[in-house]
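Subject: Protein record for review, amino acid sequence with backbone structure tokens
Concerning: The relation between a protein's sequence and the shape of its backbone.
How to read it: Take the token row as a discrete description of the fold.
Enclosed: The protein record, placed directly beneath this head.
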Amino acid sequence: DYVGRCGADGIKLHLLNVLKGTDLEQEYDKGQIAVMEMEEYFALLGQCLSILPESMVIHRLTGDGPKSILRAPLWVGDKKRVLNGFYQYGKAHQIRQGSAYGKELL
């Protein structure tokens, strides 16, 4: 909501990636953090897009770490699948950028 109202022209969105050899990987291995499933991420993306103004440029919907060191979530390594999946999710849930812009959040 803040980013949508602050005057930014664009935004990059992507989820947390756990990379091999990092402190985050150790926490992931211990079960101290969880990563999102693809459907969870799609739902969050849909919420984000709906509260961003239509005029804001979306520069990125997903990011991906190098596959050779990507530990989790592994589904993010298939960018085409992620983008096509979100497109289908958006159609099915009638997601439209700006549809909730300026409305009070619960």
In short: The chain has a mean pLDDT of 93.
